[in-house]
């Protein structure tokens, strides 16, 4: 609950909705990616083996969009919270907006657009913020692929994420429909006594027990929550 600097731990679980106001498309909103494209053609290992060119072009386009996007007030407020709390961001997002906002502990459950991996050995990954092209190979001479967790593949850093949530003082979920497992069920691992809050425009999945749901845009709600939490923590240190 308290790190070696005496800071209490806040764990933030984010989804595509926190990056929506930075101009990046979500997946299941009206104009979401999975409303326009087929998961089975673009986000599975079979899809990549069937048509690597199409899959690479989809992720190369998302790379450009993510690079051109800027962190928004929600990303920045969460990064600034580190002055007062030990903040761990557990994100389903593959953009690097949390890092670019200044968050220092970011766990990517579903991979990262600015990395590439071997298509035969997932543990071989590379910093790779440029396009991935056919004919670019890893050190085992296999075609490079996006370092993204496709449907049917194991989620990254799940155990580490679970341990952080289990030792949280507060848990905040932002911008996820809670549609995808096992990521969404991490929220159920929060301690009974932890303060638990969800911020989203809507939740398609089940709202986990004892979470307060605050309907609203991330850039409106998250900065207010962070400001209140900072004030509370600073005042509690003064008394
Ligand atoms: N502020 C807050 N919430 C928002 C905003 C906003 N400006 N815009 C959209 N949302 C909410 C939507 O109401 C929705 O609940 O963000 C959520 C986005 O849900 P999804 O599109 O399902 O995204 P996410 O929950 O991150 O999806 C999880 O599914 O396809 C996989 O790997 C992909 O990581 C992704 C995972």
How would you describe what is shown here?
Keywords: NAD, Transferase. This is protein acetyllysine N-acetyltransferase. InterPro entries: DHS-like_NAD/FAD-binding_dom (IPR029035), NAD-dep_sirtuin_deacylases (IPR050134), Sirtuin (IPR003000), Sirtuin_cat_small_dom_sf (IPR026591), Ssirtuin_cat_dom (IPR026590). It comes from Aliivibrio sifiae. The chain has nine helices and nine strands. The protein starts with 8 loop residues before the first strand and ends with a helix. The strands form two sheets. Strands 3-2-1-7-8-9 form a six-stranded parallel β-sheet, sandwiched between helices. It is of the alpha/beta class and 239 residues long. The chain has two domains: 149 residues, Rossmann fold; 80 residues, SIR2/SIRT2 'Small Domain', CATH 3.30.1600.10. α6 packs parallel to α9. 33% of the residues lie in helices and 19% in strands. It binds adenosine-5-diphosphoribose. The site of adenosine-5-diphosphoribose has 23 residues, from α1.
Outline of the structure:
The chain is of the alpha/beta class. 33% of the residues lie in helices and 19% in strands. α6 runs parallel beside α9.
Q: Level of helix content? A: 25-40%
For the biggest β-sheet, the strand order reads 3-2-1-7-8-9
For this structure, the CATH topology of the largest domain is Rossmann fold
* Rg: 18 Å
From the coordinates shown, what is the CATH architecture of the largest domain? 3-Layer(aba) Sandwich
> Which kinds of small molecule does this entry bind, naming each only once?
adenosine-5-diphosphoribose
Task: Give the helix/strand class.
Answer: alpha/beta
Under the CATH scheme, which class of the largest domain? Alpha Beta
């Amino acid at each position: 609950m308290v790190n070696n600097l005496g800071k209490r731990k806040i764990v933030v679980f984010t989804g595509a909705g926190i990056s929506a106001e930075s101009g990046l498309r979500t997946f299941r909103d009206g104009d979401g990616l999975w409303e326009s494209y087929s998961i089975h053609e673009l986000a599975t290992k079979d899809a990549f083996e069937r048509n690597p060119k199409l899959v690479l072009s989809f992720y190369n386009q998302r790379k450009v969009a993510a690079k051109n996007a800027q962190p928004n007030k929600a990303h920045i407020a969460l990064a600034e919270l580190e002055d007062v709390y030990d903040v761990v961001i557990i994100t389903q997002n593959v953009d690097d907006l949390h890092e670019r906002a200044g968050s220092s502990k970011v766990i990517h459950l579903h991979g990262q657009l600015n990395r590439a991996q071997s298509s035969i050995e997932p543990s071989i990954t590379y910093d790779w913020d440029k396009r991935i092209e056919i004919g670019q190979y890893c050190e085992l001479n296999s075609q490079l692929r996006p370092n993204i967790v496709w449907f049917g593949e194991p989620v990254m850093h799940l155990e580490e994420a679970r341990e952080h949530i289990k030792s949280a003082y507060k848990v905040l979920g932002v911008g996820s429909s809670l549609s995808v497992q096992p990521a969404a069920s991490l929220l159920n691992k929060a301690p009974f006594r932890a303060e638990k809050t969800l911020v989203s425009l809507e939740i398609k999945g089940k709202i986990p027990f004892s979470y307060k749901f605050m309907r609203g845009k991330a850039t409106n709600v998250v900065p207010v929550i962070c400001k209140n939490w900072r004030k509370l923590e600073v005042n509690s240190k003064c008394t």
